[in-house]
């Protein structure tokens, strides 16, 4: 319906802001070295240059920002929403997917490194209930 659509495209709500931060910073944390090797400019390098910090310090700062964004995501899920839970949980579930994809390495660009095992555990060898 129109209310759900408007809510989904509204980038000012707490869930969407938190999702954007989580996705962007997890990606930058997991991919910064590989992107630099390919000659690309990544967010981590920009952060290092802007604040005069090492890569480890930049990643630590990113992790702190990610933690705050997760808290905002959780708070946003607890607030009343003008849409159904099915719609409201989309940003949360996408953030969870991002967490899994970038947990160990760049599971999005190179899924064979870590996502292959995750997918097998979920779809081929699920935990019996």
Descriptive tags:
single chain, 129 residues, mainly alpha, Farnesyl Diphosphate Synthase, 6 helices, 0% strand
Note the topology.
Elements: H1 2-9, H2 14-37, H3 43-51, H4 55-78, H5 85-101, H6 111-124
Fourth CATH level, the homologous superfamily: Farnesyl Diphosphate Synthase
The biggest beta sheet is recorded as: none
CATH architecture: Orthogonal Bundle
Query: What distance separates the N and C termini?
Result: 35 Å
Can you offer a commentary on this structure?
Residues 3-72 form the Terpene synthase metal-binding domain. One of its GO terms (molecular function) is magnesium ion binding. This is Terpene synthase metal-binding domain-containing protein. The protein is mostly helical. It has a single domain (2-124), classed as Farnesyl Diphosphate Synthase. Helices cover 74% and strands 0% of the residues. It has six helices and no strands. It has helices spanning 2-9, 14-37, 43-51, 55-78, 85-101, 111-124. Helix 2 runs antiparallel to helix 4 (55-78), helix 2 packs parallel to helix 5 (85-101) and helix 3 (43-51) packs across helix 4. The longest helix has 24 residues, at 14-37. It is globular and about 45 Å long. The mean pLDDT is 85.
């Amino acid at each position: 319906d129109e209310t759900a659509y408007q809510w989904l495209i509204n980038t000012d709500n707490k869930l969407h802001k938190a999702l954007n931060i989580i996705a962007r910073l997890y990606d930058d944390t997991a991919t910064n070295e590989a992107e630099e090797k390919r000659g690309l400019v990544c967010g981590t390098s920009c952060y290092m240059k802007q604040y005069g910090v090492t890569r480890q310090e930049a990643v630590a700062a990113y992790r702190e920002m990610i933690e705050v964004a997760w808290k905002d995501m959780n708070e946003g899920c607890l607030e009343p929403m003008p849409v159904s839970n099915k719609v409201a949980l989309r940003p949360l579930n996408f953030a969870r997917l991002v967490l899994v994809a970038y947990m160990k390495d760049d599971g999005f660009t190179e899924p064979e490194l870590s996502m292959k095992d995750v997918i097998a555990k979920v779809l081929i060898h699920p935990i019996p209930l």
